[in-house]
User: Fold this.
Amino acid sequence: QKEVEQNSGPLSVPEGAIASLNCTYSDRGSQSFFWYRQYSGKSPELIMSIYSNGDKEDGRFTAQLNKASQYVSLLIRDSQPSDSATYLCAVNRHDYKLSFGAGTTVTVRA
Amino acid sequence: AAGVIQSPRHLIKEKRETATLKCYPIPRHDTVYWYQQGPGQDPQFLISFYEKMQSDKGSIPDRFSAQQFSDYHSELNMSSLELGDSALYFCASSLGTDTQYFGPGTRLTVL
Assistant:
């Protein structure tokens, strides 16, 4: 079992809708949580970081963290075709590596 | 803002050859990481360096070695290349164990 699990997708949403991405992790010692966006053949691009329980909003993106449930999510509001990509959940125990989920591929239909 | 620089961007090698990938971190970042991403897979951690010392090691084959130099750039050396080594290789950098920022990657193809 992977340390980080994501809903596998693919996830298809109409333009303007909300895309909801979920991620669970197994290591309770995890302290830092990240969402990266990756276009095909390109490098992961940081979208959000979150460190404490609750919500964190940045523009159209909202990350939610619940350490008790070992759960982190990402909401993309007003989805745009340019949001079509693979979204990687990553977890760090404040050591020197990131553990990634398998990614969720999002397609925004125009 | 300056980003992580990787070279070369593309590399084609034959089986059993060697390859060297280079990574130049964001200025003032003291930690570099190497990840390997196969087709349709998530990035797999290989190795990391903090202040020129190896800080963590993941699923890096014994055929691979890496180091971080005094100017903080890092090189990943890959020997006896196999077909299965074909992948995207990403370098990331951070300040300590803070947020990691990824370079554009090197696409290695082994024929």
